[in-house]
Design a protein that fits this description.
With 174 residues, the protein is of the alpha+beta class. The protein has helices spanning 2-42, 73-76, 106-118, 144-157; strands spanning 78-81, 84-87, 96-103, 124-128, 133-141, 168-172. Strands 1-6-3-5-4-2 form a six-stranded mixed β-sheet. The protein is elongated and about 95 Å long.
Length: 174
């Protein structure tokens, strides 16, 4: 009796292992076919010169291109937010400001502010209640053009700092 049970189990195992092999080769075949298609797409297809025939298209009127209008890049980088001064000169915040960092923790904003003070700036830390975010402001101006120039100068001063390269303009909503 034991011999027949062992013999039955052995046959079942042999059948189970032989069926797994066929599915593995199917995956391998699909992979190899995809790899061949990928290589075929990468190689430029050459056509023999004798099969090529010149194509003559009728003349079409030449389109005159209109001059490209300049896009005001300053507008794209301006965000409107309602903020309050948390650290720095209370009356120093004007309509347009250059923001060089945004933080959830006030301590992180204060750290960047201290670094900028060591570099000669008079930065501010402001808080946006709606977004629960502290913003570090490098400089602040009455007009957008001056703020944009200051932002570009700030980015030029720190070319290796990826965070400062993301500086943007803030328009203060009162």
């Amino acid at each position: 009796m034991k011999k027949s049970i062992l013999l039955g189990m052995g046959v079942c195992l042999a059948v189970a292992f032989s069926s797994c092999k066929s599915s593995e080769s199917a995956y391998k075949k699909i992979y190899e076919k995809a790899k061949q298609n990928e290589l075929a797409e990468q190689q430029p297809q050459e056509t023999p010169a004798e099969n090529m025939t010149p194509v003559v298209q009728p003349a079409s009127p030449v389109a005159v291109q209109q001059p490209v209008q300049k896009v005001d890049t300053v507008v794209a980088d301006v965000r409107e937010e309602r903020v309050t001064v948390v650290s720095g000169h209370e009356n120093g915040l004007k309509d347009y400001s250059v923001v060089c960092g945004s933080f959830l923790a006030k301590a992180n904003a204060e750290g960047v502010k201290a670094t900028l003070e060591n570099d000669g700036y008079t930065p501010l830390v402001v808080y946006n209640v709606e977004k629960n975010t502290y913003r570090v402001i490098v400089s602040t101006f009455d007009d957008k053009a001056s703020a944009a120039e200051a932002r570009d100068a700030f980015k030029a001063r720190y070319p290796g700092n990826k965070d400062f390269q993301k500086s943007w303009l803030l328009y203060r909503i009162q």
